Amino acid sequence: MSKLTRRNFVKTTFAAGLAASVLPTDRVLGANSDIRIAVVGFNSRGRSLIGGFNALDGVRVAALCDIDSAVLNRVADGLDKKTKTKVQRYTDIRKLLSNKNIDAVAFATPVHWNGYGTLLALDAGKDVYVEKPVCHTLQEGQLMLAAARKKKLIVQSGTQNRSDIGMRAVVPDIQGGKLGKIEFIHSYWNRPRGNIGKVTGPQQPPSTVDYDLYLGPAPKKPMMRKRFHYDWHWQWDYGCGEVCNLGNHQIDMARWVAGIDRLPDQTITFGGRAYDDDGQTPNTMLTAFLYNDNIPIFWESRNLPAVPGKRGSDPIMGSTAAIYAKCEGGYFVGGRGGGSTYDNAGKLIKKYPGDGGGRSHLQNFIDAVRSRKHETLRAEIAIGRLSTSMCHLSNISYKLGKVAAPGDNCYTKQIEALKINPYFATRWESMQAHLKINKVDTNKTPMLIGAPLQMDAKTETFTGPAETAKKATALATKDYRAGFTLPG
Ligand SMILES: NC(=O)c1ccc[n+]([C@@H]2O[C@H](COP(=O)([O-])OP(=O)(O)OC[C@H]3O[C@@H](n4cnc5c(N)ncnc54)[C@H](O)[C@@H]3O)[C@@H](O)[C@H]2O)c1
């Protein structure tokens, strides 16, 4: 681990960093005052970032970096052809960061590199656009925020729904009380995903991959899955599961609509992985984020289909991916691409058409890079790291969970003990029915009842029963491999 110990990280970096003031820097822009941006990681999402940034006025994708030379050369060749220039190519991000001609770096890498790479980039004085989930642990998120403030750099989270015109229109309406008081917000994304397979021993990564650089700060372990790209999402060393993946977007929107800008006082997760494969993260999950002085936020995801062998997934309030904001006088269902408000009888009140937010989210980042005003960012790192940290809390509760005895109604008892809005219990009942339809034998693949986590949200330290708090604190950090320790 770095010089920061697990015990002192909150006090030494988080609080100190937040106290730092924010002033514009005297950054010198590139020729013709173009913003020169480097994109890191583009097997998939990064390609949208390359296209999106290059399409903006006064922005140039000047460098590309990927540890897979096949991906690097394919994408760089395409870009060279399109722009009739030569983009600089890198395999090692550390070399890229020493290039003084790069103003900003965009990350679309596995999660163990998103946050760590951002910290390296901030240390090198670059502004950053970082894909969600922005950090791999709570600690990383805190360090990113502190570093951005200390260095007066601009950091935008890739949660582009914050720029969706439909969402931007509905949030003030809901917060302004058009539907009455908010009662709870249920965020969800049900998307069937197949089993990722189960290997019997170490696999050879593609020959074009620099595997040591790929691992970076992660433990030195062989590849233990069939597919190199993308399936890292479901292994803890590199990803953090569906809650961090699709859930990050939904939980972020729920928190935004609720107007909540802190971590919850309590978190509890129920769920499991209903496959015997190389994936480690839950693929069936239900989490309650509870606030002493505010409404609860729920998160739900199902990676099994609605009907075994068929493609579709279970809709909730008519949608498989949305937030459902229940208010006294009606409700909103929607998210990326907009949504609608309804009265309590289900009659449409108003449509809020959306646009996905993608392009204007990138423009919003570039505008802040020019103005040096981080307050103008729609998904500033202070926002992004809070939403990602909620995803991590969901996982920490799960990781510290216990197997429930068959037939035991401990889930219901726990929901009652935590005084969670009764709606949550109906979601758990629905999830059990869904598992039954999918013929999941919960004796063989048990659903865990997560540890109820308690937190002092002001200092972001775990409280409550000492043993749970200690274990949760350990899971809020991680070790960084020698050669890839934290900067500073
Ligand atoms: N905002 C969105 O809507 C959205 C959509 C999709 C994905 N994402 C996010 O984008 C990120 C990437 O997802 P993906 O689906 O493109 O994954 P992917 O596995 O398809 O691609 C990741 C790329 O990163 C490269 N890479 C890994 N380590 C690297 C390193 N140290 N330096 C340089 N390159 C490295 C890999 O070789 C690969 O090309 C994830 O954080 C994901 O959650 C966001």
What is the gist of this entry?
This protein is α/β, with parallel strands linked by helices and 488 residues long. It has 14 helices and 18 strands. Nicotinamide-adenine-dinucleotide binds at residues 40-46, 65-68, 71, 93, 108-111, 113-114, 131-132, 158, 160, 213-214, 216, 229-230, 245.
CATH architecture of the largest domain: 2-Layer Sandwich
User: How many DSSP H or I helices?
Assistant: 14
State which percent range the strand residues make up: 15-25%
In this entry the ligands are: nicotinamide-adenine-dinucleotide
Question: Explain this structure to me?
Answer:
The chain folds into two domains: 9-162 and 360-379, Rossmann fold, CATH 3.40.50; 164-356 and 388-475, Dihydrodipicolinate Reductase, domain 2 (2-Layer Sandwich), CATH 3.30.360.10. The protein has helices spanning 9-19, 45-54, 69-83, 93-97, 111-123, 138-151, 165-175, 211-215, 241-258, 358-371, 381-399, 410-417, 422-437, 466-475; strands at 35-40, 59-65, 88-90, 104-107, 127-130, 155-157, 182-189, 266-272, 284-290, 297-302, 321-327, 330-335, 338-342, 348-353, 402-403, 448-449, 453-456, 461-463. Strands 7, 8, 9, 10, 11, 12, 13, 14, 15, 16, 17 and 18 form a twelve-stranded mixed sheet that branches. A six-stranded parallel sheet has the order 3-2-1-4-5-6, with helices on both faces. The two termini are 13 Å apart. It has 488 residues and is an alpha/beta fold. The longest helix has 19 residues, at 381-399. Residues 1-29 have low confidence and may be disordered. Helix 6 (138-151) runs antiparallel to helix 11 (381-399). The protein has 14 helices and 18 strands. The structure holds nicotinamide-adenine-dinucleotide (NAD). The site of nicotinamide-adenine-dinucleotide has 29 residues, from helix 2, helix 5 and helix 8.
